[in-house]
Amino acid sequence: MKKRIFSLALVALMILSALSFAPASVSAESFTTGGITFNYTVDGNGMATITGAESEVIGDLTVPAEVDGHPVTAIKDSAFKGNAYIRTLTIPDTVTELIGGRWDYGAFQDCTALNTVNFGTGLTSIGWNAFRGCTGLKSIVLPEGLTVLSSSAFRDCTRLTDVVIGNNVTIISSDCFSGCINLENVTIGNAVETVDTGAFYNCQKLKYINWGSKVKTIGVSAFYNCTSLSSLSIPGSVLEIYGNRWDDGAFENCTGITALNLSSNLTHIGFNAFRGCTGITEIKLPESVETMEREAFANCTAVQSVEMGSKLLSFPKGASPAVQALKSFISETVFKK
Question: Residue 5 phi/psi, 5° resolution?
Fold first, then answer.
């Protein structure tokens, strides 16, 4: 009997413990302001998350800073997804996060009429797919307080021409601006250390990159098919240009590059890094380069001269000492034509 009472007491204690740690929220609440009825939830700390609106918003959308006395600190994934009538979005300073995970629709994904976003100063995180497919956006200046810029956040924003990334973002995540085919100018903040896989994939009109002072790594296919780049100067902070055998190279098929200046501290050049850059005529590898993977400069058909530093320790297997039309000893598999 005592064992049974003890077991029941233990079960009751476990249930109470679970309830005490479960996040409290109030779902399906609503608040009307400016003719728009917003839906929201409230967490255990009294902070509100906007989950959407009861009807499609037409024209200007100003997210309230407070609902029924609760500060609005987040906007949920899918909240306004597919609304084709929002033109201007204003996010209050109280909002810190646009929620979104890898498999979620973004908070404003496919809002195709959206052309202006006024970010609040409190925003620190933009989630996955947040503005993906917002084909009306033309210019974005991200707030200085932003620290997280998630994958595919502005993917396929096909009218976007100018982007300024603040000085607290450390990673431009994978596919962040992939498919922004009219993007011309990018300013990278001074805290960015990594430009991740496919970050600017197929940005065909990209002409100017204002590199931040701390970029160390450039990911696989980061600038693939950016055919309008003409003069590329990779800053001295960059140590590695990544690549792997099966993916597009970091700058592969950037056919417009005619002048290439590599980082003076670069140590590694990955697979296919500059493959198909048919405008490059001269390659000067800095003294710092130690490893270079297969076909890093394959199909660079205009190359006439190559200079390599003495620290180049690793050539791919099968490297041979010379290639037609090149004036220096080089690897056939690296500069394959």
Answer: -60, -45
pLDDT at 308: 81
* Terminal-to-terminal C-alpha distance of the chain: 85
HSE-CB at 159 with a 13 A cutoff on CA atoms is 15
Strand 116-118 to strand 171-172: parallel, antiparallel, or no bridges (unpaired)?
unpaired
Nearest to 177 by CA among 206, 198, 147, 208: 198
Contacts of 20 (CB under 8 A, 6+ apart): none
pLDDT of residue 331: 47
> How many contiguous H segments (helices) and E segments (strands) does the chain have?
1, 25
* Structural contact between residues 149 and 142, judged by C-beta atoms closer than 8 angstroms: yes
Residues of the chain with pLDDT below 50 are 1-26, 317-329, 331-332
Question: Which residue is it, tokens 């970029």?
Answer: 215
Residues 6+ apart with CB under 8 A from 334: 292, 293, 294, 295, 296, 297, 298, 315, 316, 319
pLDDT at 129: 98
Q: Are 215 and 191 in contact (CB under 8 A)?
A: no
Compute φ and ψ for 150, nearest 5 degrees: -80, 170
Bridge partners for 116 per DSSP: 88
C-alpha 271/C-alpha 38 separation (Å) is 50
**pTM to 2 decimal places:** 0.87
pLDDT at res. 335:
61
Dist CA 193 CA 169 (whole Å):
9
pLDDT computed for residue 10 by the predictor:
44
Q: What is the pLDDT of residue 6?
A: 41
Would the CA dihedral through 63, 105, 132, 209 be positive or negative? Answer: positive
DSSP symbols for 246-265: TS--TTTT-TT--EEE--TT
